[in-house]
Amino acid sequence: MSAPSGAGKTTLLNRLLADFPDIARSVSCTTRAPRAGEQAGVDYVFIDEKTFRDMAQNDLFFEWEEVHSSFYGTPKGPLIERRAQGRDTVLDIDTRGAMSLRRAYPDACLIFLKPPSIEALETRLKARRTEAPEALKRRLENARREMAEQDRFDYVIINDNIDRAYQELRNIVDKVRRHS
User: Fold this and answer.
1) What is the spatial distance between Cα 155 and Cα 153, in angstroms, rounded to a whole number?
2) In this structure, are residues 83 and 89 in contact, taking their beta carbons and an 8 Å threshold?
3) Which of 35, 58, 111, 158 is the residue whose CA sits 20 to 30 A from 167?
4) Contacts of 107 by beta carbon, 8 Å cutoff, 6+ apart
5) Domain 9-178 has what CATH class?
6) pTM (two decimals)
7) Whole-angstrom distance, CA of residue 28 vs CA of residue 41
8) How does DSSP classify residue 113?
9) Which residues contact 78 (CB under 8 A, 6 or more apart)?
10) Residues 114-172: pLDDT tens digits?
């Protein structure tokens, strides 16, 4: 699943994982600092930039990107292991990472979650109070770029109502699992 920052992706994925305990969550590595309420090893593996660069150089990431002046990467090992076991894994991944996933796994189901509008997204990001004005501006620019990529995804969900968006996500997961 990909979405601009602040679109509600984490909320929906947490709900999905609670309802589908057999689906594993891919935990990405990042060099950014934890946000309030985030747990190391659950939300992200928080590492320093040197460790991240060493892992990237040793080809330990399935994909990695620099986003908002921090590095994010999907470790290869757990994803390969779960796939070999036939287990479903959900990835919280940016649009570039999603396209890397599609190239490696053409049968992957790509879902894009979008806010009802850029204005609504800006309101949500401001409400988080985690962004300096320059960082907020950068996130909104990235959101516009990411939203321009939505047609490359299998499904697009508009998060204008969290319960409706969750039901749509759940329906997609049920449908994909029935046909795989």
Assistant:
1) 6
2) yes
3) 35
4) 180
5) alpha beta
6) 0.85
7) 9
8) E
9) 24, 26, 27, 89
10) 999 888 888 878 887 777 888 888 888 989 999 999 999 999 999 999 999 999 999 99
